[in-house]
Design a protein that fits this description.
about 950 residues; eight-stranded parallel barrel; 37 helices; about 45% helix; binds adenosine-5'-diphosphate; binds magnesium ion
Length: about 950
């Protein structure tokens, strides 16, 4: 019955949509789970209210309202404004104050809040509701004229810059002039009279720069503020941020209207930001900062360097005690590390925001593992808490400690983003971009950073700022981007765009500087780096028990291994790579590219001779020279991979890659002919040129390569198989367990597979007979052509395993050349930002007019590609071929082994696809093995384990009831 009723109203909702959610007096209409509707901030305020945590009352206008407003071209949906006004009345009652009431004025903040937090993006307006009359009421109530005037002048400046587009400097200059004329240095030195004068001067400035009077009607102020927040969703900064972090444009932002509390009412008041644990190391202590006698964004903006939070204990003990209680309560409730904003008004603590805190990869792992020990979360949740890519931070190099001691330390700041960065100083984002483009390592040095610096920040390896705390813009961005950051380093004094003083030294842009993000030290010069602790353990130069960091890293991966059903192998061609791969937990080699072995020192010449050979017997002579070398390579690999499978791909690239370039040879010939020197060399060069001409192909990637080479020149295959099996026999003699998988590349037809398999089996049997050994080898193929995928059933009659070579498969399915298509792909991914008329990427986001051609854009283009298919597997197209191949291959051969060895094997979302598609393993580069292990575990947890294939991993599935709870809590 209920279902029916819902259905009936679906087309035409009878009850009007609820757009506004009130919270106050310990009860909220919303709750924490409604993030999509209320935005992160609104959901958090509602949840805290429901937990009886002191939050000033208010209400949230939903993201749906914003989406409607944008859809209706900046008009409210019907009934919205009435509802807002009704909730305003309710807020007045709750507070026993009147909005616009001159004797007892209610003031509010107007705050944006999208589903995902977008730091520093949309600004909050504080003290809204002040005007010439209400300011008098505020003064009377607080008996503090200075406070009232200060609040009003701040409000005029803030509202006018954020909502009315007046430039901030307009007010700053005026303020500065006032201070100069009165001989004051700080804002705080201005008395009430000076502030009153400022208010009048500000109002005149507003009139001049905005072309209208400062709005005196609080209701007007409220409407303008709300509109500004809705509009800011489509502002330049917001759009840039969304592109960078792949946040959909369709979400919209919520608006929070919250009754004001005042942190600027004296020394028993203040405002602050804390993390419940360290966001950079994960250490379990309250971490953050506060500023006494201050309001709002003073902390976040990094304008004054605030005090560490521990100092609040002596400054306002009662509030500090309340804060520690609340922080524990909230951590226990959310079961995660949180980022909290608060204000203290005359000793009374108010919470203004809670959200799951952003953290570095190192902190993410430590917090997850610690919270399991504290029984706050399960191992499964811990595994879901760490972003696979974030594990890379454990592999970042650190400064070589002995070298670090020799360099001069010039300052110390807050270690806001861990790691070691050394590079050239850039003092503006533009310099950073230019230096990066020139191939330099860059450290961006600023007084403070702002959202406009974001491109320069992403071009830098690290940031150093003079101002700001652990929660400043630079710090937050660093942790998100995984960059090194030192914030609040008072020794730094930027002098314009070309020089900076740090401690006792003066640097010009382009000079070298080194910053240690683990302890906050800043050094002159370029300190050499060395391997991270984890890498040192893997390399055997550090004992695991000596490294706490390694222990945390391996703990979370051990847990991951209990959940995943995919095996993880590595792509490795050399024993040292194989050793690293094993150290990171690889369960075999999924791709050994044998041609890499031919490019080695002293081997290219033999290769060239082999290619130059005119007859088979001549070619075999040179191949015989290669045989022992190649065999030695395999022996090395097998020893490192004892007990695990090693997939060896037969020779794949076109031969011309081993010969000099045609143009170079022509130049050499011409030069030798001119000078008449050395006729023997000339003749040889000419012969080589002739062979290059003969091998010349218009499209070598689709030419004589892969199995086609082995079919036309079976002696190459024979030599390689002999090396593979001889090496296996010899390592078996040493007691090793070797499982070679011989992989034939670029198969398109059954016949190709059959032909090569026969060659392989002949040689293998012969070698095994010579050695009196039986090697359990398999013969299979790479699936990298659309035809192979479609004909997988036939091919699987011969092939004992498939490995998806998704680099080539992507090339051939799309018809994109990997080396040439990046320009097209980049274009396809940026259609949304282009003018539909002239294609320029220069659209004024507010007016939607193309700055290049003046075209008024009615509708944006859609992106043709959402991502680069060479980085993230195209699941529909290329993935479709993979699914067909798996289905047909398994139908023909139920025990067919299937894996993937393309670049995608280490990309978390592609790993997830592989899990769902039912592959047996993924193979990726050795350093991405930990990432793939974690991604595979997350895929198994999120999508259920494919139980038929891997009964041993079944414990990963948990009762559905429990799993539901996990999902809401751990999604970030
Ligand atoms: P952001 O999204 O940048 O974090 P917020 O909306 O959280 O912006 O506002 C920034 C700061 O402004 C808050 O941390 C808080 O200090 C202050 N603030 C916001 N609303 C109020 C309020 N109602 N009373 C007092 N301070 C407030
Ligand atoms: Mg802000
Ligand atoms: Mg905030």
């Amino acid at each position: 019955m209920v279902k029916k009723a819902v259905k009936a109203t679906k087309g035409k909702p009878k009850t009007p949509t609820k757009y506004v959610y009130f919270f106050g007096n310990g009860k909220a209409e919303g709750k924490g789970g409604l993030k999509e509707l209320l935005g992160g901030k609104g959901a958090g305020l509602a949840e805290m209210t429901n937990l009886s945590i002191p939050v000033p009352p208010g209400f949230t206008i939903s993201t749906d309202a914003c989406v409607e407003y944008i859809r209706r071209r900046r008009k409210y949906p019907p009934g919205l404004w009435d509802t807002v006004l009704k909730n305003m009345t309710r807020l007045e009652k709750t507070m026993s104050m009147g909005f616009g009431d001159p004797s007892n004025p209610l003031l509010v903040s107007v705050r944006s809040g999208a589903r995902a937090s977008m730091p520093g993006m949309m600004d909050t307006v504080l003290n809204l509701g002040l005007n010439d009359q209400t300011v008098q009421g505020l003064i009377k109530k607080t008996h503090n004229e200075r406070f009232g005037c200060d609040a009003y002048r701040r409000f005029i400046a803030m509202f006018s810059t954020i909502v009315m587009d007046v430039k901030r400097e307009v007010f700053e200059e005026c303020l500065q002039a006032k201070k100069t004329s009165l001989g004051c240095t700080h804002d705080i030195d201005l008395n009430a009279r000076a502030l009153r004068e400022l208010i009048n001067e500000f109002k005149i400035l507003v009139q001049r720069h905005a072309g209208r009077d400062f709005p005196q009607d609080p209701i007007d102020q409220l409407r303008m503020g709300t509109n500004a927040i809705f509009d800011s969703w489509n502002g330049d900064r917001a759009i840039t941020y969304r592109r960078l972090y792949k946040i959909p444009d369709a979400w919209g932002t919520a608006v929070n209207i919250v009754a004001m509390v005042f942190g600027n009412m004296g020394n028993d008041s203040g405002t602050g930001v804390v993390f419940t644990r360290s966001p950079s190391s994960g250490a379990a202590t309250l971490f953050g900062e506060f500023l006494s006698n201050a309001q709002g964004e003073d902390v976040v903006a990094g304008i004054r360097t605030p005090l560490p939070i521990a100092k609040m204990e002596t400054a306002i003990p009662s509030a500090y005690k309340a804060l520690t209680k609340i922080h524990r309560k909230l951590e226990r409730h959310y079961c995660d590390m949180l980022d909290l904003e608060f204000t203290v008004q005359k000793g009374q603590l108010y919470m203004l925001q809670t959200r799951v805190g952003k953290r570095t990869g190192i902190a993410a792992v430590k917090i997850a593992v610690d919270m399991v020990k504290e029984r706050l979360i399960t191992k499964e949740e811990a595994v879901l808490r760490v972003e696979p890519e974030h594990l890379e931070q454990y592999l970042y190099p650190v400064f070589d400690p002995s070298a670090e001691a020799r360099f001069t330390k010039q300052g110390k700041g807050l270690p806001a983003g861990p790691g070691a960065a050394a590079g050239k100083i850039a003092l503006t984002p533009e310099q950073a971009i230019a230096m990066k483009a020139a191939g330099d390592r860059v450290v961006l040095v600023r007084m403070e950073t702002s959202p406009d610096d974001i491109h320069g920040m992403s071009a830098s390896s690290g940031f150093l700022t003079a101002r700001g705390g652990m929660t400043s813009h630079a710090a937050v961005v660093a942790r998100q981007m995984g960059k090194v950051c030192i914030a609040g380093c008072e020794a730094v004094e930027v002098e314009g765009d070309s020089s900076v003083r740090i401690g006792s030294a003066r640097f010009n842009k382009g000079d070298f500087i080194s910053i240690n993000g683990f302890d906050g030290s800043v050094y002159e010069g370029d300190i050499p780096v060395m391997a991270s602790e984890v890498v040192q353990v893997i390399q055997g130069t550090l004992k695991p028990e000596k490294s706490e960091r390694y222990q945390y890293f391996s703990k979370v991966l051990q847990w991951a291994d209990t959940f995943r059903s995919l095996d993880v192998r590595a792509n490795a061609d050399a024993p040292d790579q194989a050793a690293v791969a094993r150290g990171f937990g690889a369960q075999g080699i999924g791709l050994c590219r044998t041609e890499h072995m031919f490019f080695a020192e002293g081997r290219v010449e033999i290769m060239q001779n082999m290619i130059m050979a005119r007859t088979t017997s001549d070619r075999m002579k040179h191949l015989d020279e290669l045989l022992p070398l190649q065999k030695q390579d395999f022996i090395g690999l097998y020893r490192k991979m004892d007990g695990y499978p090693v997939t060896i791909r037969l020779f794949d690239p076109p031969l011309h890659e081993f010969l000099p370039k045609r143009e170079d040879l022509m130049v050499q010939v011409a030069r030798a002919e001119l000078t008449g020197e050395d006729p023997a060399t000339l003749a040889k060069t000419k012969r080589m040129l002739a062979r290059v001409d003969e091998l010349h192909e218009f499209n070598p990637m689709l030419g004589l390569r892969g199995c086609r080479l082995g079919i036309l020149m079976p002696e190459i295959t024979r030599m390689q198989v002999r090396a593979i099996i001889e090496a296996a026999c010899e390592v078996t003699k040493e007691g090793g367990n070797i499982f070679p998988e011989i992989m034939v590349p670029l198969i398109g037809t059954w016949g190709e597979m059959r032909t090569q398999k026969q060659v392989i089996q002949d040689v293998a049997s012969q070698v095994m007979a010579e050695y009196h050994k039986v090697i359990p080898y398999q013969v299979g193929t790479m699936i990298e052509l659309p035809r192979a995928a479609i004909m997988a059933g036939e091919i699987a009659e011969e092939a004992e395993f498939f490995s998806f070579g998704t680099n080539d498969l992507t090339q051939t399915v799309f018809g994109f050349s990997r080396d040439d298509a990046s320009k097209i792909i980049n274009f396809y991914m940026t259609m949304q930002d282009r003018c539909p008329h002239c294609q320029a990427m220069d659209i004024d986001q507010k007016t939607m007019v193309c700055r290049a051609c003046g075209f008024q854009i009615a509708k944006r283009l859609d992106n043709i590609l959402s991502g680069d298919p060479f980085t993230t597997l195209d699941q529909k197209g290329v993935g479709g071929f993979i699914e067909i191949a798996i289905e047909r291959g398994r139908a023909a051969r139920p025990d067919l082994k299937i894996g993937i060895c393309g670049e995608h094997g280490g990309d978390p979302s592609s790993v997830e696809f592989c899990h769902r598609a039912g592959l047996g393993y993924v193979s990726c580069s050795p350093y991405r093995v930990p990432i793939a292990r974690l991604a595979a575990a997350q895929a198994a947890i999120n999508h259920g384990v494919i139980a038929e294939r891997k009964p041993s991993a079944r414990r990963a599935t948990r009762p559905a009831s429990k799993r539901g709870k996990t999902a809401t809590r751990s999604r970030r």
